[in-house]
Task: inverse folding
């Protein structure tokens, strides 16, 4: 609802004539308030901004989940390679010692 002298008088359940004749300060405040953006416009802009931010965050979360999956796969591969290398090292160490009698 836009603020206006008529809206203020209606809310107060009074005539708007006294506003114009004796309350110039209130009329000035109404004029300043009327020049400010409407609450609904601010709300719509806030909703749009939050929706865009939410979409960006969801996209980032998907990217991070994929990166986490790739890092887990790489970690598993490195662990496997380390175990294979340790087995080869142990086999080589046993071969270098020679057979036990």
Result:
């Amino acid at each position: 609802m836009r603020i206006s002298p008529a809206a203020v008088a209606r809310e107060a359940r009074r005539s708007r004539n006294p506003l114009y004749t004796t309350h110039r300060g209130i009329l000035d405040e109404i004029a300043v308030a009327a020049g400010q953006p409407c609450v609904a416009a601010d709300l719509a802009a806030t909703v749009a901004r939050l929706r865009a931010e939410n979409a960006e965050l969801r996209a980032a979360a998907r990217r991070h989940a994929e990166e986490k999956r790739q890092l887990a796969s790489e970690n598993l591969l490195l662990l496997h390679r380390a175990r294979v290398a340790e087995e080869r090292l142990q086999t080589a160490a046993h071969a270098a010692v020679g057979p036990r009698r």
Residues 1-36 form one domain. The two ends are 100 Å apart (CA to CA). The mean pLDDT is 87.
